[in-house]
Amino acid sequence: MWSVTLSPDETLSVPVSEFLVKNPNESGKGLISIKIYDVTGRLVKTIANGKMSENYHEVEWDNKDMSGKAVPAGIYVLQIVANSKSETKKLFVMK
Q1: Virtual torsion, Cα 28, 52, 8, 5, nearest 10 deg
Q2: Contact of 48 with 59, CB cutoff 8 Å
Q3: pLDDT tens string 54-88
Q4: Any residues with CB less than 8 A from the CB of 69 and at least 6 apart, and which?
Q5: Cis before 8 (ω within 30)
Q6: What is the rounded distance in angstroms from the CA atom of residue 60 to the CA atom of residue 45?
Q7: Are 69 and 63 in contact, with CB atoms under 8 Å apart?
């Protein structure tokens, strides 16, 4: 089971967005992918893409795209994939 906590909430008006993610892989190891997309489906940034132990991990997004530019206010999608499990959350970036 996924456990994703957005801090402080789903409205991101701070310079850094923090996520508490629990990897659902029962073996204690596994590949995990955490990506941010805009509402058109364009990849904005890859936050994590690799091995992550089964446990809670604090992951940060600096509200910037892959080129380092601040993203405009709007709706974004956080996608987390591990093994065959996937979860998405809507994020609202406010300026």
Answers
A1: -40
A2: yes
A3: 666 677 788 899 999 999 988 899 888 877 778 88
A4: none
A5: yes
A6: 12
A7: no
Residue 61's Cβ-count burial label (10 Å; 0-12, 13-18, 19+) is buried
Q: Give the number of domains in the chain.
A: 1
What's the CATH code of the domain at 36? Answer: 2.60.40.1930
Q: Are 53 and 7 in contact (CB under 8 A)?
A: no
Domain that holds residue 33: 3-93
Q: What is the pTM of this model?
A: 0.73
List, as one string, the DSSP characters of 32-47: EEEEEEETTS-EEEEE
Least Cα distance to 91 among 81, 77, 71 occurs for 77
Q: Which residue type occupies 17?
A: S
Place of tokens 């801090």: 7
Q: Answer whether 86's CB lies under 8 Å from 76's CB.
A: no
